[in-house]
Write a structure and sequence with these properties.
The strands form three sheets. The chain has a six-stranded antiparallel β-barrel with strand order 1-2-3-6-5-4. It has eleven helices and 19 strands. β2 and β3 form a beta hairpin. Among the domains are: 92 residues, Beta Barrel (Thrombin, subunit H); 101 residues, Trypsin-like serine proteases (Thrombin, subunit H); 92 residues, Pdz3 Domain. It is of the alpha+beta class and 428 residues long.
Length: 428
């Protein structure tokens, strides 16, 4: 009995356990389900990351906002004279107490003094060139044989400001207006991509911006913002240096002086002084006028014909400062389309013409024309601002925003006397 039981136990132990049959369809379904869930989970995780990543990035690393640009005015009375350059070392070493007797002896300059003066002036040029760039506008075109080629227009540019995010460069509008891409070449030949920040068709100027993050560190250490001069009333006969591209192509410099500073250029909504020099340049010149203190006092504009060629002339920096500041901040400049001048006090007393901004011409299809302003009108008020001259008109226009309606008060000549009219205009 016991032997039979033991034998059965042994037989039980020897029984072979069979494997469970594999259900292939069920395995495939589970595999597909797992893979689908993994894909769905991955898509959800990816979408969540894309949505929340900018939020967390802005919280942890907030993007720096551009600072408002405010151009500082430099006093031209601090300008260095040529004799200050020559005697600079001597005056630094002499005690103040010794310089008490009047100068009565005739001073004769040696050739070495003349050479030293030019070396000092060229040293000033080298320092100022750190504020100069070349702006290149690239336009793609096609010839008669359907071959695509690139045209490159070039103009001198001036670094006028930086707002913590961008480097802001003043240049000619003609180069950037129709360009498909822009490049800025610094004094060390570094080439960086640029974009148009703002432009003003009336003055023909534009602001090009370059991201500071895109400028190599070595180049950033070399460049500097230009010092803008006031170009005041004492600028006549001031020694100046024309820098940039005064000869029309290639980097060049010319030494000379200001021969005229009282001529006015009547632009649309802007009147600027033209600084004429004795320097002969090119009709396609671009660049700046710099005094002997390294201050930029004028922006070179198309030249006027002189007796011996094309005389270089420039718009006074003092008359462009507010415009450049507004453009540097990316703010659109309001325009009405008025060309005008001041009413002289003598004319006002003799003929009874009211003081204000005398309208000489209205631009076609401009807000001024649509408002009904006519040639011969005298603008005496713009909004709430009293207008006593065309300069007052310019400054008041700078405070307006494009698209906002403003009341223009004009005095219009009638059969017997001037009559006041209130006109509504929308600057563009």
């Amino acid at each position: 009995m016991e032997e039979n039981q033991t034998s059965q136990e042994i037989e039980f132990i020897k029984e072979k356990v069979k494997e469970r049959p594999l259900n292939r369809k069920k395995l495939i379904r589970r595999t597909l389900l797992t893979a689908s869930m993994a894909v769905i989970f991955g898509l959800i995780a990816c979408l969540t990351f894309l949505v929340l990543e900018p939020v967390f990035t802005n919280l942890l690393y907030p993007e720096e906002e551009p600072r408002q640009v405010q151009l500082q005015e430099e006093d031209i009375e601090d300008e260095m004279r040529p004799e200050d350059m020559i005697l600079e070392e001597e005056t630094q070493t002499q005690p103040v107490a010794e310089v008490v007797q009047p100068v009565v002896e005739k001073v004769e300059l040696e050739m070495s003094d003349y050479q030293r003066l030019y070396r000092l002036m060229y040293g000033l040029v080298q320092e100022t060139e750190k504020s100069m760039v070349t702006v290149v506008g690239v336009v793609t075109d096609m010839d008669w044989f359907d071959n695509i080629y690139e045209n490159q227009g070039q103009s001198a540019g001036l670094i006028v400001a930086e707002n913590g995010v961008e480097l802001l460069i003043l240049t000619d509008r003609d180069v950037v207006e129709s360009a498909e891409s822009l490049a800025v070449v610094f004094s060390d030949e570094t080439r960086v991509e640029g974009t148009v920040k703002s432009q003003d068709p009336q003055t023909g100027l534009a602001i090009v911006s370059v991201m500071l993050s895109g400028i190599p560190e070595k180049t950033r250490e070399e460049i500097r913002t230009a010092v803008l001069g006031s170009s005041g009333s004492s600028i006549l006969a001031t020694p100046v240096i024309a820098m940039g591209r005064p000869l029309g192509s290639g980097t060049s410099i010319i030494y000379g002086m200001v021969t005229s500073a009282d001529a006015k250029v009547n632009l649309v909504d802007h009147n600027v002084r033209r600084l004429t020099t004795d320097m002969v340049g090119d009709q396609n010149s671009s660049g700046v006028l710099v005094n002997l203190s390294g201050q930029v006092i004028g922006i070179l504009r198309p030249t006027e014909e002189g007796h011996e060629g094309e005389l270089l002339s420039a718009y006074s920096m003092a008359d462009l400062r507010a415009l450049i500041e507004k453009m540097s901040n990316g703010v659109r400049v309001a325009h009405l389309g008025v060309t005008g001048t001041d009413v002289p006090a003598s004319i006002s007393e003799e003929l009874g013409v009211p003081l204000g901004a005398y309208v000489t011409q209205i631009q076609m299809d401009s807000p001024a024309m649509e408002a009904g302003i006519q040639s011969g009108d005298v603008i005496t008020r713009l909004g709430e601002t009293e207008i006593g001259s065309f300069t007052d008109y310019q400054e008041a226009l700078m405070d307006l925003l494009p698209g906002n309606e403003v009341t223009v008060t004009v005095m219009r000549q009638g059969p017997e006397a001037y009559q006041e009219m209130l006109l509504e205009a929308v600057p563009e």
